[in-house]
């Protein structure tokens, strides 16, 4: 190494400049990834599988939050009749049919989730006011129900000793598709009650996408296999 270079490296402030330069590049990279997510990834994951017309469609449960701060509408085609899809929706929940998603991931955080591969008659009874558990100590409430067509859950997850900083609805809607098949739409809506709620919800929605797309495929596969 040339003597002049060694001297430069030992001068006061040299390592600080290197650190600042590396940190700046890191911040630029993080900012770039964040920008790409906002521009492309966010809209894609919030609306996975859904059509533009479906994203603007008024669904059961939408009236419970007047002005949602975040809405996710995800959908899937199911080559089975709406009547064969509904029983899988009716029995969702921890301690019942599960969520048909990645049980292993959910159980890492203590959800004790076990997704069923069969329709259980004892789990088919569901009514407005019932609790649908996401984990042993966490549940949502059935707020609206259209037998065979729509299930709307509402509530939220407390943050420590604080109540949920948002209003939340989760709607499962089965629509008719060509050839007698079904189209399943799942919509999440958040209405923020605290300014910092977005800092909690936005990262959560990334995980929600991962779990929701698997849930939709899980319901599809089970309904189609039951033909």
Description:
There is one protein chain. It is built from six helices and six strands. It has a six-stranded antiparallel sheet, covered by helices on one side. The protein folds into two domains: 3-46; 52-225, 2-Layer Sandwich (Alpha-D-Glucose-1,6-Bisphosphate, Chain A, domain 4). The protein starts with a helix and ends with a helix. The protein is α+β, with helices and mostly antiparallel strands. 39% of the residues lie in helices and 22% in strands. Helix 4 crosses helix 6 (197-225). It is globular. It has helices at residues 3-10, 14-46, 52-55, 82-90, 103-108, 197-225, and strands at residues 70-78, 131-135, 138-146, 150-155, 166-176, 182-192.
Shape descriptor: globular
Radius of gyration from CA coordinates: 23 Å
Could you please say which CATH topology of the largest domain applies here? Alpha-D-Glucose-1,6-Bisphosphate, Chain A, domain 4
The N- to C-terminal Cα distance equals 74 Å
Main sheet summary: 6 strands, antiparallel
Layout: helices, strands, pairs:
Blueprint: H1 3-10, H2 14-46, H3 52-55, E1 70-78, H4 82-90, H5 103-108, E2 131-135, E3 138-146, E4 150-155, E5 166-176, E6 182-192, H6 197-225
Antiparallel strand pairs: 1-6, 2-3, 3-4, 4-5, 5-6
Supply the key terms.
alpha+beta; Alpha-D-Glucose-1,6-Bisphosphate, Chain A, domain 4; 2 domains; six-stranded antiparallel β-sheet; 6 helices
């Amino acid at each position: 190494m040339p003597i002049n270079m060694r001297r430069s490296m030992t001068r006061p402030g040299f390592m600080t400049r290197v650190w600042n330069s590396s940190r700046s590049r890191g911040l630029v990279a993080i900012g770039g990834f964040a920008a790409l997510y906002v521009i492309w990834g966010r809209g894609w994951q919030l609306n996975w599988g859904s059509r533009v017309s479906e994203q603007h469609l008024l669904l059961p449960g939408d009236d419970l939050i007047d002005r949602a701060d975040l809405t996710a509408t995800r959908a899937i085609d199911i080559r089975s009749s709406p009547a064969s899809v509904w029983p899988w929706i009716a029995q969702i929940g921890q301690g019942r049919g599960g969520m048909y998603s990645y049980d292993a991931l959910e159980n890492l955080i203590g959800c004790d989730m076990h997704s069923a591969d069969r329709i259980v008659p004892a789990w088919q009874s569901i009514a407005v006011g019932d609790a649908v558990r996401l984990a042993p100590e966490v549940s949502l409430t059935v707020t609206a129900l259209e037998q065979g067509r729509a299930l709307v859950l509402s509530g939220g997850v407390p943050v420590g000793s604080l109540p949920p900083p948002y209003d939340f609805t989760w709607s499962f809607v089965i629509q008719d598709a060509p050839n007698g098949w079904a189209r399943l739409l799942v919509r999440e809506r958040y209405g923020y009650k605290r300014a910092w709620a977005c800092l909690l919800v936005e990262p959560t929605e990334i995980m929600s996408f991962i779990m929701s797309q698997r849930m939709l495929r899980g319901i599809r596969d089970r309904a189609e296999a039951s033909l």
